[in-house]
Amino acid sequence: MSAETIDSRTTAIVSEFRELSDWKARYRRIIEAGKALPELAEERREDRYRVKGCQSQVWLIPAFEGGRVRFEAWSDAAIVRGLIALLLRVYDDQPPEAILTTPPTFVDELGLSEHLSQSRANGLASMIRQVQLYATVYRAMDQREGA
User: Fold this and answer.
1) pTM to 2 decimal places
2) DSSP symbols for 70-126
3) Residue 61 belongs to a domain with what CATH number?
4) If residue 69 lies in a helix (H) or strand (E), which one and from where to where?
5) Number of structural domains in the chain
6) Is residue 21 included in any domain, yes or no?
7) Is 1 a domain residue?
8) pLDDT tens digits in sequence order for the chain, 147 residues long
9) Which residues are marked as active site?
10) Is the CB of residue 74 less than 8 Å from the CB of residue 37?
């Protein structure tokens, strides 16, 4: 999975969703993606990993391994969990620089901006900002260690 670029992952997701006939089918696919997300153990759901700005409870736990950002994530809401799964498909196991230089165009390409409720759209934006924040921190740490 790590050999794939963010662009190739985004292209695959957009193609997958374009094949679906309507938004009802797309919502089902988002929920299915969330069901496939490994459950985050209760003891790992620490407040420091909660994403602020989400109406649902969302945890995003980062790790930096081999120059790549890894994520574990969970939400108590089915659609939000599916949105997290999509984010992880795009950004998990990528170098910080790639995360920071590749905007989340898939959000608009999938039509999520228009079809999510305002609170879910705000939550998705908060999750994306959190992913980018972790990438920023890990890039700075990596540059410091390389200096």
Assistant:
1) 0.91
2) EEEEEESSHHHHHHHHHHHHHHTTB-HHHHHHS--THHHHTTHHHHS-HHHHHHHHH
3) 3.90.1010.10
4) strand 68-75
5) 1
6) yes
7) no
8) 446 899 999 999 999 999 998 999 999 999 999 999 999 999 999 999 999 988 899 999 999 999 999 999 999 999 999 999 999 999 999 999 999 999 999 999 998 888 998 999 999 999 999 999 999 999 998 877 765
9) 54
10) yes
